[in-house]
Every structure is written in C-alpha cells, then in structure tokens.
Design a protein that fits this description.
- This protein is mainly α and 249 residues long.
- 69% of the residues lie in helices and 3% in strands.
- It has 13 helices and 2 strands.
- Helix 1 packs across helix 3 and helix 5 runs parallel beside helix 10.
- The longest helix is centred in the middle third of the chain and has 22 residues.
Length: 249
C-alpha cells in the first residue's frame, strides 16, 4: 500500500483519511486486516500513539473490529456504511449541542476539582486567562481562543490527566464550537458581556475554593450557552445519525 508522510495538525484525521483512500482504491476490503500499528506509524511518519488514536476513533464509530492479539479488521457488515461513517468523521461533524453536552458532563467536575486542588500559580493562570478574555470582549472580538484558554486553565488546575487528555482530544471541535457560538453572541448587543459575567462567576468560585459553587456556575454557564443557541442547535444534524439508524435495522 502507498501512504504519504503526514505533517498536519489533526494527525489522527489524516491517518483515517489515508485509510479511507486505501478502502476506496480496493487495497483494504471489508473483513480484511488493516496494516499493523508499527507499519502505519513508519509508513505515515507518525507516532504509534497517533495511529492508536485513529484506530480508536474508527473502532468507536463501528468501522473496524479490534481482535486482541490478532489485529484490526475492517467491518464486513452490510448494515454498516463504512465510507459514510468515515466521511462523517473527516467532516468533523461534531455540532454545538454535542460539544455543550460533553462539556457540561466533564467541565463541571473540572471546575469542582480546580477549586479544591489549584495552586496559587494555577489560580494565577486562570486569572490571566480571564483578563485576556475580558480584554477581547471589550474590544468586540470573537474571543474564541481566549475562551478556550480560560477553560483549559481550569482543566489543568483540576489535576486529572485523563480529563486533560479527553479535552485535548476534542480541542479542535471545541474551538470550532466556540467560534460558532461566540460569533452568534457578537450579533446581539450586550450578550458578550453576559457571557463574560458567567466566566467571572466561575473564576471567583474557584478562587474562593467553593467547589460546589464552581461546578454549579460551570453547569449554568454551559446550559445558558445551549439555551441561547437553541434555534441554531435544532437545525443541526447529530453526527453519525444515518449510521445509528442503519445499526438499528
């Protein structure tokens, strides 16, 4: 099989894209085994960790079957539209409602633990991120990067490596969602200031070591984001929707 070296930001996406090309070209057929992790890492000039990440995404999406001690096999199931599912992954079809539901589930606890565990240096990092966000809002900027930095500072202060890795894994989708939501926020006078105040309350609860309040404020912030953009969310199709329907037949 012919693969190309990868030098892009979303490495696991590029690995999946090249696996897709091998499927389209008939180099990998349903039921057949994919190249080994070592082979893919060497052929694509990426780390084996990145290959594992790509395989994990394909496995979670129902594209492949992992047989421990044997290898990874492309699904051979007439009810699974492999290319449609891979296209859904490559289109980064996470939508705002999914991102918000995930963040509410995870970041509430991140704020809780940050309030309990943060050091003065970590509190300082959260404060710096908030001040940068405040400055961007005052200058009428979208402030997606500043918003992201604020939330990441909280996740780091929670001192949970798994939590940090999960957030990092969806960082691109998270930033896309922030850009979308904050762009909409700018269209309504005063709304950016409301969102900023929600972030201020989260920061103050963490600073005051009030873990329960920090979690509550994070939940309420993310729920309000969802409420503000309900009309937009209703128009968006959940990713893998067609795939899930096929699976139930």
């Amino acid at each position: 099989m012919t693969f190309e070296p990868i030098a892009k930001k979303r490495i696991y996406h590029e690995i999946i894209r090249q696996i897709k090309l091998s499927i389209v070209n008939g180099q990998i057929n349903p039921g057949e085994q994919l190249p080994s992790e070592r082979y893919l890492a060497d052929a694509l000039s990426v780390s084996r960790t990145s290959v594992r990440e790509a395989i994990s995404v394909l496995d979670a999406s129902g594209v492949v079957t992992i047989r421990p001690g044997v290898g990874v096999f492309l699904k051979d199931d007439p009810n699974v539209d492999i290319l449609l599912t891979i296209n859904s992954i490559l289109k980064e079809s996470f939508n705002l409602v999914e991102i918000l539901e995930f963040r509410k589930a995870v970041e509430g606890d991140a704020a809780y633990y940050a309030a309990q565990r943060s050091t003065p240096q970590e509190l300082g990092a959260i404060q710096i991120a908030f001040v940068a966000l405040e400055s961007a809002v005052m200058q009428r900027e979208i402030a997606a990067n500043e918003d992201y930095a604020f939330h990441m500072a909280i996740c780091k202060a929670a001192k949970n490596l798994i939590l940090q890795k999960v957030i990092f894994f969806i960082s691109d989708a998270l930033l896309d969602g922030l850009n979308e939501s904050r762009s909409k926020t700018l269209q309504t006078p005063g709304k950016s200031e409301v969102v900023l105040e929600e972030h201020r309350r989260i920061y103050e609860a963490i600073r005051n070591k009030n873990a329960a309040l920090a979690r509550k404020e994070m939940w309420e912030h993310l729920e309000q984001v969802k409420v503000r953009f309900t009309p937009l969310l209703r128009e968006s199709r959940l990713p893998f929707q067609n795939f899930e329907v096929k699976q139930k037949r």
